[in-house]
# Entry
Amino acid sequence: MNKRILIVGICLLLGACAGPTTTRTQPLAETADAPYGNVLVVSVFLSYELRREFEREIVKQLKESGIEAVASTSKLDGSVPINKDTVLALVDELGADAVLVSQLIDLNTQGKMRDRSPEATYNFRPTYYVNVWSVELAEYVEPQGLELEFALAIATQVFSVRDKEPVWAMETHSKLKRDMEGQFRGTSFPAEARAIVSALKRDKVIMK
# Structure
Protein backbone atom coordinates (compact mmCIF):
# COMPACT_ATOMS: atom_id res chain seq x y z
CA MET A 1 0.00 0.00 0.00
CA ASN A 2 2.92 2.31 0.73
CA LYS A 3 4.30 1.99 -2.79
CA ARG A 4 0.87 2.37 -4.37
CA ILE A 5 0.22 5.63 -2.54
CA LEU A 6 3.65 6.90 -3.53
CA ILE A 7 2.95 6.13 -7.20
CA VAL A 8 -0.34 7.97 -7.07
CA GLY A 9 1.30 10.92 -5.37
CA ILE A 10 3.85 11.17 -8.17
CA CYS A 11 1.04 11.01 -10.72
CA LEU A 12 -0.76 13.84 -8.98
CA LEU A 13 2.35 15.94 -8.96
CA LEU A 14 3.08 15.39 -12.64
CA GLY A 15 -0.42 15.41 -14.05
CA ALA A 16 -1.91 18.73 -15.09
CA CYS A 17 -5.07 18.10 -17.06
CA ALA A 18 -8.55 17.23 -15.85
CA GLY A 19 -9.84 18.34 -12.47
CA PRO A 20 -11.43 16.03 -9.92
CA THR A 21 -15.15 15.59 -9.38
CA THR A 22 -16.36 16.73 -5.97
CA THR A 23 -19.06 15.50 -3.60
CA ARG A 24 -20.23 17.27 -0.44
CA THR A 25 -20.57 14.59 2.23
CA GLN A 26 -21.43 16.84 5.18
CA PRO A 27 -23.04 20.27 4.73
CA LEU A 28 -21.83 23.09 6.91
CA ALA A 29 -23.30 22.65 10.37
CA GLU A 30 -25.84 25.31 11.29
CA THR A 31 -24.14 25.82 14.64
CA ALA A 32 -20.65 26.17 13.16
CA ASP A 33 -18.72 29.36 13.88
CA ALA A 34 -17.88 29.73 10.19
CA PRO A 35 -16.64 31.41 8.09
CA TYR A 36 -13.05 30.77 9.13
CA GLY A 37 -10.09 32.99 8.43
CA ASN A 38 -7.14 31.20 10.04
CA VAL A 39 -6.76 27.56 9.01
CA LEU A 40 -4.26 24.86 9.93
CA VAL A 41 -3.87 22.46 6.98
CA VAL A 42 -3.15 18.80 7.73
CA SER A 43 -2.89 15.89 5.30
CA VAL A 44 -2.72 12.25 6.32
CA PHE A 45 -0.67 10.25 3.81
CA LEU A 46 1.92 7.58 4.54
CA SER A 47 4.57 9.56 2.65
CA TYR A 48 5.81 12.74 4.33
CA GLU A 49 6.83 14.15 0.94
CA LEU A 50 3.29 13.76 -0.37
CA ARG A 51 1.88 15.37 2.77
CA ARG A 52 4.17 18.34 2.36
CA GLU A 53 3.39 18.85 -1.34
CA PHE A 54 -0.36 18.48 -0.90
CA GLU A 55 -0.50 20.82 2.10
CA ARG A 56 1.63 23.36 0.26
CA GLU A 57 -0.84 23.52 -2.63
CA ILE A 58 -3.88 23.92 -0.36
CA VAL A 59 -2.17 26.64 1.67
CA LYS A 60 -1.25 28.43 -1.56
CA GLN A 61 -4.87 28.37 -2.75
CA LEU A 62 -6.18 29.55 0.63
CA LYS A 63 -3.71 32.43 0.83
CA GLU A 64 -4.60 33.52 -2.70
CA SER A 65 -8.18 33.72 -1.41
CA GLY A 66 -7.14 35.98 1.46
CA ILE A 67 -7.18 33.30 4.18
CA GLU A 68 -4.43 32.87 6.77
CA ALA A 69 -3.23 29.29 6.39
CA VAL A 70 -0.29 27.21 7.62
CA ALA A 71 0.75 23.71 6.59
CA SER A 72 1.42 21.28 9.42
CA THR A 73 4.54 20.08 7.59
CA SER A 74 6.01 23.58 7.77
CA LYS A 75 6.06 23.14 11.56
CA LEU A 76 6.54 19.39 11.99
CA ASP A 77 9.07 17.09 10.37
CA GLY A 78 8.42 13.50 9.36
CA SER A 79 9.44 12.11 12.74
CA VAL A 80 6.54 13.79 14.57
CA PRO A 81 3.30 11.78 14.53
CA ILE A 82 0.06 13.45 13.53
CA ASN A 83 -2.37 12.98 16.42
CA LYS A 84 -4.74 15.00 18.55
CA ASP A 85 -2.03 16.33 20.84
CA THR A 86 0.30 17.55 18.08
CA VAL A 87 -2.57 19.17 16.18
CA LEU A 88 -3.92 20.96 19.27
CA ALA A 89 -0.42 22.21 20.08
CA LEU A 90 -0.15 23.71 16.59
CA VAL A 91 -3.62 25.23 16.87
CA ASP A 92 -2.63 26.97 20.10
CA GLU A 93 0.65 28.19 18.60
CA LEU A 94 -0.98 29.58 15.45
CA GLY A 95 -4.24 30.82 16.94
CA ALA A 96 -6.13 28.91 14.21
CA ASP A 97 -9.91 28.85 14.27
CA ALA A 98 -10.24 25.76 12.04
CA VAL A 99 -8.31 22.66 11.00
CA LEU A 100 -8.59 21.25 7.49
CA VAL A 101 -7.73 17.54 7.29
CA SER A 102 -7.36 15.57 4.02
CA GLN A 103 -6.70 11.86 3.67
CA LEU A 104 -6.70 9.20 0.97
CA ILE A 105 -9.73 6.96 1.52
CA ASP A 106 -9.84 4.84 -1.63
CA LEU A 107 -7.40 3.72 -4.29
CA ASN A 108 -8.00 1.28 -7.14
CA THR A 109 -5.32 0.43 -9.68
CA GLN A 110 -5.71 -1.48 -12.95
CA GLY A 111 -2.93 -2.44 -15.33
CA LYS A 112 -2.95 -3.68 -18.93
CA MET A 113 -0.12 -4.95 -21.10
CA ARG A 114 -0.19 -3.31 -24.52
CA ASP A 115 1.65 -4.05 -27.74
CA ARG A 116 3.85 -1.23 -28.89
CA SER A 117 3.70 0.03 -32.45
CA PRO A 118 6.36 -1.78 -34.47
CA GLU A 119 8.87 0.15 -36.52
CA ALA A 120 9.95 -1.02 -39.94
CA THR A 121 12.50 -0.03 -42.57
CA TYR A 122 12.17 -0.79 -46.27
CA ASN A 123 14.99 -0.95 -48.78
CA PHE A 124 14.09 -0.88 -52.50
CA ARG A 125 16.69 -1.76 -55.09
CA PRO A 126 16.29 -2.07 -58.85
CA THR A 127 17.30 -5.34 -60.52
CA TYR A 128 18.51 -6.11 -63.97
CA TYR A 129 14.95 -6.97 -64.93
CA VAL A 130 12.44 -4.40 -66.14
CA ASN A 131 9.90 -3.35 -63.47
CA VAL A 132 11.37 -5.80 -60.96
CA TRP A 133 12.63 -4.51 -57.66
CA SER A 134 14.38 -6.11 -54.72
CA VAL A 135 12.66 -5.30 -51.43
CA GLU A 136 14.10 -5.83 -47.95
CA LEU A 137 11.88 -5.41 -44.90
CA ALA A 138 13.28 -5.13 -41.37
CA GLU A 139 10.72 -4.88 -38.55
CA TYR A 140 11.56 -3.95 -34.97
CA VAL A 141 9.08 -4.84 -32.26
CA GLU A 142 9.71 -3.63 -28.71
CA PRO A 143 8.56 -5.55 -25.62
CA GLN A 144 5.01 -4.96 -24.44
CA GLY A 145 4.39 -1.96 -22.21
CA LEU A 146 2.28 -1.61 -19.07
CA GLU A 147 -0.54 0.94 -18.93
CA LEU A 148 -1.81 1.86 -15.47
CA GLU A 149 -5.12 3.46 -14.54
CA PHE A 150 -5.84 4.81 -11.08
CA ALA A 151 -9.10 5.78 -9.41
CA LEU A 152 -8.72 7.51 -6.08
CA ALA A 153 -10.77 9.42 -3.57
CA ILE A 154 -9.57 12.00 -1.06
CA ALA A 155 -11.76 13.00 1.89
CA THR A 156 -11.44 16.49 3.36
CA GLN A 157 -12.97 17.60 6.66
CA VAL A 158 -12.99 20.97 8.39
CA PHE A 159 -12.89 20.89 12.20
CA SER A 160 -13.98 23.84 14.30
CA VAL A 161 -11.41 24.68 16.96
CA ARG A 162 -14.13 26.12 19.16
CA ASP A 163 -16.41 23.10 18.89
CA LYS A 164 -13.61 20.50 18.52
CA GLU A 165 -15.66 18.54 15.98
CA PRO A 166 -16.06 18.30 12.20
CA VAL A 167 -18.44 20.89 10.79
CA TRP A 168 -18.09 20.24 7.04
CA ALA A 169 -16.78 17.50 4.74
CA MET A 170 -16.30 16.66 1.06
CA GLU A 171 -14.67 14.09 -1.22
CA THR A 172 -12.75 14.52 -4.45
CA HIS A 173 -12.66 11.70 -6.98
CA SER A 174 -9.93 11.55 -9.60
CA LYS A 175 -8.81 9.33 -12.44
CA LEU A 176 -5.21 9.08 -13.55
CA LYS A 177 -3.50 7.23 -16.37
CA ARG A 178 0.11 6.29 -16.97
CA ASP A 179 0.85 5.25 -20.55
CA MET A 180 3.50 2.82 -21.76
CA GLU A 181 6.04 5.61 -22.10
CA GLY A 182 5.68 6.59 -18.45
CA GLN A 183 3.71 9.78 -19.17
CA PHE A 184 0.89 10.71 -16.77
CA ARG A 185 -2.46 12.27 -17.57
CA GLY A 186 -5.06 13.25 -15.02
CA THR A 187 -5.48 15.30 -11.87
CA SER A 188 -2.67 17.32 -10.34
CA PHE A 189 -2.14 18.46 -6.76
CA PRO A 190 -2.95 22.07 -7.78
CA ALA A 191 -6.23 20.88 -9.34
CA GLU A 192 -7.14 18.98 -6.16
CA ALA A 193 -6.37 22.05 -4.05
CA ARG A 194 -8.42 24.34 -6.30
CA ALA A 195 -11.40 21.99 -6.10
CA ILE A 196 -11.23 21.87 -2.31
CA VAL A 197 -10.86 25.63 -1.83
CA SER A 198 -13.61 26.35 -4.38
CA ALA A 199 -15.96 24.12 -2.39
CA LEU A 200 -14.98 25.87 0.84
CA LYS A 201 -15.87 29.23 -0.71
CA ARG A 202 -19.09 27.97 -2.23
CA ASP A 203 -20.34 26.65 1.10
CA LYS A 204 -19.14 29.73 3.00
CA VAL A 205 -16.81 27.67 5.17
CA ILE A 206 -14.03 30.25 4.74
CA MET A 207 -14.08 34.01 4.51
CA LYS A 208 -14.01 35.60 1.07
